[in-house]
Amino acid sequence: MTRGRPREFDTNSALDQALAVFQRDGFEGASVQALTEAMGICKPSLYAAYGNKEALFIAALRRYTDAQEAHRTALLDGEPDCRRAVALLLHDMVASHARCQSSSACLIVRETLGGTAAAHSSEIREALASAMASGHSTLAARLVRARNEGQLTPACDTTALADYFSAVMSGLSILAKNGASADAMDRVVQTAMHAWPEERSPRIAQRHA
Question: Quick check: is 114 in a domain?
Answer without folding.
Answer: yes
